[in-house]
Amino acid sequence: MIARPRVSESRPRGPGKKRKTEADPSTNRNIKKDRDRKASLPEEQWVYQNAKKSFNAQWRQVKKKLFQQDHYQNADEATRASLEDAAF
Question: How confident is the model at residue 14 (pLDDT cuts 50, 70, 90)?
Answer without folding.
Answer: low
